[in-house]
Amino acid sequence: MNITMVKKIMEDGRECKKCREVSERLESGGEMAFINRTIYADMRDPSSEGHHVAKMHNITIAPFFVVEEAGQVKIYKTYMELKRKVFKKILDEADIEIEEKRKAKPASSALDFMKYKSKVKSASSPMPQIDIDSLNSDFEDKSPRELLKWALDELHPSIALAWSGAEDVALVDMMLKINPQARVFTLDTGRLNEETYQLISRVREKYGMNVEVLFPHTEQTEEMIRQNGINLFYDSIEKRKLCCKIRKVQPLTKMLSTMNAWITGLRRDQSVTRTVLQKIEIDHAFGGIIKINPLAGWSHDDVWRYIRENDVPFNELHEKGYPSIGCAPCTRAVQEGEDIRAGRWWWEEPESKECGLHIKSK
């Protein structure tokens, strides 16, 4: 497959604004690596290559993309169309290759990576069990950095941070200071705020890192919308959870099926559904892998103190009354005196405000 991006140069010699914005989106999503070639339709030069290609395909907008595969040429006029129909295919093929390699390895569990052998209980089941109580007792009074160092030393590269909020960017900063090769992924649901995409770009630039971006399954998303409407989540809790399942839970499940552990920015003080959160858990919802919550004992103020002291990038929406940020249509600014997660799915009761990514381990 060969992908050519056609951009426009204006009369003043600058790229068009839309071209710059799309390029930033490609960079922030780690997708620029898929673009094999970039050419320009220069408004000052009708003979430029980009003009020729645009005329050949009868295209009058910029940017657009020419995808050549197996002798066929297809034109994609928008970034979102390219992402849904082309990048998703590339990533699916990469995931298949990763899965095949994983299955080819000798059978092992997440515990095989751990030096904490004294904490492993013997059992007749194929999957050994972690002595969660002992581990949590040992790490309860230790700092997030100490827990992260232990987890990365024992489990990298089969462990990654799921990044979504301010807490997670603080963890990105800590992790990369411990191990510059630490892995970070995020879920692009297709309904995120523009400020979130801008943050991804700033983080990539500051830390010189790649963020692994996960997307929902195109056909399932399209079918859900056909049957229930574009904003189905406002209709009922069941439909909201269906949307979360397809846009968030399923891509995460696919990612975690290749991992032995994952790291989150969950805190006990975030909501009534997280008050009993442990720093180390077995995540039964995702195949019994290890779940690390380094910030479980931190407060909202602790997070922001770290961000300010370490000059960590953060989402601009946080300064506009958004302490917790999810998808754009499901997040609003909170009012003075409201709970910090009051703006998430604000039409629901607090007890139902989870998307399915973080189900309490039994």
Give the C-level CATH assignment of the largest domain.
Alpha Beta
* Largest sheet geometry: 6 strands, mixed
Number of helices: 10
Structural class: alpha/beta
The CATH topology of the largest domain is given as: Rossmann fold
Describe the structure.
37% of the residues lie in helices and 15% in strands. The protein is an alpha/beta fold and 362 residues long. The strands form three sheets. The protein has a six-stranded mixed beta sheet. The longest helix is centred in the first third of the chain and has 26 residues, at 79-104.
Summarize the structure.
The protein has 362 residues and is α/β, with parallel strands linked by helices.
Task: Give a topology summary.
Elements: E1 2-9, H1 17-28, E2 37-42, H2 49-56, E3 64-69, E4 72-76, H3 79-104, E5 120-121, E6 129-130, H4 132-139, H5 144-155, E7 159-163, H6 166-178, E8 183-187, H7 194-207, E9 212-214, H8 218-228, H9 237-256, E10 261-263, E11 280-283, E12 289-292, H10 300-309
Parallel strand pairs: 1-2, 7-8, 7-10, 8-9, 10-12
Antiparallel strand pairs: 1-3, 3-4, 5-6, 11-12
